[in-house]
UniProtKB/TrEMBL annotation:
Localization of this protein: Cell membrane
Domain ABC transporter: 2-242
Highest taxon in the source lineage: Bacteria
CDD domains (UniProt xref): ABC_cobalt_CbiO_domain1
Species per Swiss-Prot/TrEMBL record: Ellagibacter isourolithinifaciens
Family label: Belongs to the ABC transporter superfamily.
Example GO molecular function: ATP binding
Name of the protein described by the UniProt record: ATP-binding cassette domain-containing protein
GO cellular component: ATP-binding cassette (ABC) transporter complex
């Protein structure tokens, strides 16, 4: 369980707080998407969960962040990293080895995982990300998407309770982005791992996450299921968040009383709503 209470943070070099009065509870095993306009504070929010603030970036930190009851201000970064695995935006800066297998081994050895457990952990992590065949490849020769998967596998091998990923599909084409979300979702369900993903592609988030968090100027403006949040497509647009087109289309039809039911999150949902409309069953009474 992650409990964030009245969190405010100002970077030491910054004039104004970047996070303002954040309250957020994330149950174990949840799949959470965080989105918002550029510079709204999404990455900073994840830094509060993985301890990068205040441990690496000092500043004025108010409120509390607890992961499994551990206060991230009081615990050391090493202790937090045993609970929270992170994949940052700049994958290259995260890589420490030149070969894929060594990259996965590095964290396991550093964490003091018993030698007898290590081979199985490496196999499992590579298999979970579908990259077993990359094991002996040079990291420098991998595509952006493959490096992304290696970075995630390296963190999964450590079996963190929480996995935080900052824009994991930034370098990926649409099909690879979907593949990464498929793998993350499956892993989260199978292992009960809490996954928090910062992502600009709201359509992708809406298909996969249980909870969608919209950050606006350092505050949580909306938080709920994708259906609940996408209800507010007009307000989201005002704060620089474009809803999926399928959602906006159906919301317009709903506003005119042509379609009933909740906001849709997927193209399939929009097709269903339009079919209902065309068959005469979708209109509101
Ligand atoms: N180390 C730092 N010191 C001072 N200010 C910082 C630091 N890191 C981030 N900021 C500022 O905090 C604000 C929020 O940045 P953050 O990266 O959290 O936003 P974001 O929503 O993740 O943005 P993006 O979508 O562009 O990645 C920005 O104005 C940024 O300049």
């Amino acid at each position: 369980m992650i409990e964030i209470s009245q969190l405010s943070f100002r970077y030491r070099e910054g004039a104004d707080p970047i996070l303002k009065g954040i309250d957020l509870s994330i149950p174990d095993g949840a799949f959470v998407g965080v989105t918002g306009a550029a510079g709204s504070g999404k990455s900073t929010l994840t830094y509060a969960i993985n301890g990068i603030i205040p441990h690496c970036y000092p500043g004025d930190f108010y409120g509390s962040v607890r992961v499994d009851g551990v206060d991230t201000c009081e615990a050391s970064l090493t202790d937090i990293s045993r609970l929270v695995g992170s994949v940052c935006q700049d994958i290259d800066s995260q890589m420490v080895s030149s070969v894929v297998e060594d990259e996965v081994l590095y964290g396991l050895e550093n964490f003091g995982v018993p030698k007898t457990e290590i081979p199985a952990r490496v196999d499992e992590a590579l298999a979970a990300m579908g990259i077993a065949e990359l094991r002996d490849r040079s990291i420098a020769e991998l595509s952006g998407g493959q490096k992304q998967k290696v970075a995630v596998a390296s963190v999964l091998a450590l079996k963190p309770r929480v996995l935080v990923l900052d824009e994991p599909t930034a370098e990926l084409d649409p099909a690879s982005s979907v593949a990464v979300f498929d793998l993350l979702k499956r892993y989260s369900v199978e292992h009960g791992t809490t996954v928090i993903v910062v992502e600009q592609k709201i359509a992708l988030l809406s298909e996969y996450v249980d909870t969608l968090v919209i950050v606006d100027e350092g505050e949580i403006r909306f938080c709920g299921t994708p259906h609940e949040v996408l209800e507010h497509s007009d307000k989201l647009l005002e704060i620089g968040v474009n809803c999926p087109r399928s959602t906006s289309l159906v919301n317009r039809l709903r506003a005119r009383g042509l379609v009933c039911g909740p906001a849709v999150c997927t193209v399939e949902g929009a097709v269903c709503a339009c079919e209902g409309l065309l068959s005469g069953k979708g209109a509101c009474a």
